[in-house]
């Protein structure tokens, strides 16, 4: 069965990377969530996609130049005005604590260290995952493949996955070079050959960001490991319909 991960929670219908969005993805029947992690000036891990808080909050400035206390004061309702004053930027610890209460629910943590190098982000992320005994339910991904090599060196208990935008030559072979076991390509960079060869080489394949129902069905037919979507409720509904037809 193809699993469904809510992209930044249920980012198509709720403020992205907020607890409201994550809870909505879970309630919609998603198998897991995907989220993004940056680091504050005082070394705390917070869940936000951009290197700055400008796009998704009422604040401004680089995450890495702000203290956690400053970030927690921000409104993270983004374009969803109905949530103004109701949603904040969560810490990674807060999200993991919640996931730990949900049997079998999965979490994909994307390290956002491709542009800004956050010292010790790998160690701090892994320590938090271990704190909540979520090693077997966590995937760490990044566009920074050097960072994934470091994660693999730090622990072999947590799955790592390479993120990439354009079609790679034999990604099922390259992924082994960085010590990872999963590929998370943009869905444009995926075809049946890549899916089949990834599975043949025991490499998990989870394309992003899959929002069109036809493409969701195609990935189900090709037995993708999973896909990541802004609309988990839509994906869950399509999966139910597809399973009824089988």
Description:
The protein is α/β, with parallel strands linked by helices. The chain has a single domain (about 5-40, about 105-245), classed as TIM Barrel, CATH 3.20.20. The chain has helices spanning about 20-30, 70, 90-100, 120-130, 145-155, 170-175, 190-200, 215-220, 230-245; strands spanning about 5, 30-40, 45, 105-110, 140, 160-165, 180-185, 205, 225-230. Strand 4 (about 105-110), helix 4 (about 120-130) and strand 5 form a beta-alpha-beta unit. Helix 8 crosses helix 9. The longest helix is centred in the C-terminal third of the chain and has 14 residues, at about 230-245. The protein starts with a strand and ends with a helix. The mean pLDDT is about 95. Pfam families: GDPD (PF03009). InterPro entries: GP_PDE_dom, PLC-like_Pdiesterase_TIM-brl.
Rg, nearest Å: 17 Å
Instruction: Write down the overall geometry.
Output: globular
CATH 4th-level superfamily: Phosphatidylinositol (PI) phosphodiesterase
List low-pLDDT spans.
none
What characterizes the major β-sheet?
Answer: 9 strands, mixed
- Just give the CATH class: Alpha Beta
What is the domain total for the residues? 1
Number of strands: 9
H/E order of the elements? EHEEHHEHEHEHEHEHEH
CATH architecture classification:
Alpha-Beta Barrel
Kindly report how far apart the N and C termini lie.
12 Å
Looking at the structure, the CATH topology is: TIM Barrel
Mean pLDDT value:
97
Organism: Metabacillus halosaccharovorans
Protein name: Glycerophosphodiester phosphodiesterase
InterPro entries: GP_PDE_dom, PLC-like_Pdiesterase_TIM-brl
Domain GP-PDE: 2-239
């Amino acid at each position: 069965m193809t699993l469904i991960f809510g992209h930044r929670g249920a980012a198509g219908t709720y403020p992205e990377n907020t607890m409201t969005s994550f809870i909505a993805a879970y309630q919609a029947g998603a198998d897991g969530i995907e989220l993004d992690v940056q680091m504050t000036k005082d070394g705390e891990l917070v869940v936000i996609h951009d290197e700055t808080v400008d796009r998704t909050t009422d604040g401004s400035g680089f995450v890495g130049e702000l203290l956690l206390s400053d970030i927690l004061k921000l409104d993270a309702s983004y374009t969803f005005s109905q949530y103004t004053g109701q949603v904040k930027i969560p810490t990674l610890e807060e999200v993991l604590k919640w996931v730990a209460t949900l049997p079998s629910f999965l979490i994909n943590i994307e390290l956002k260290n491709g542009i800004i190098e956050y010292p010790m982000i790998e160690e701090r992320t892994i320590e938090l995952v271990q704190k909540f005994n979520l090693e077997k339910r966590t995937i760490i991904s990044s566009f920074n493949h050097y960072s994934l090599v470091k994660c693999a060196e730090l622990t072999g208990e947590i799955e790592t996955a390479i993120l990439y935008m354009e079609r790679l030559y034999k990604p099922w072979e390259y992924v082994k070079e960085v010590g990872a076991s999963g590929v998370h390509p943009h869905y444009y960079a995926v075809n049946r050959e890549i899916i089949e060869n990834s599975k043949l080489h025991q490499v998990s394949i989870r394309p992003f960001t899959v929002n069109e129902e036809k493409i969701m069905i195609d990935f189900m037919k090709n037995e993708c490991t999973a896909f990541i979507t802004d609309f988990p409720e839509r994906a869950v509904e399509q999966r139910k319909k597809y399973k009824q037809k089988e």
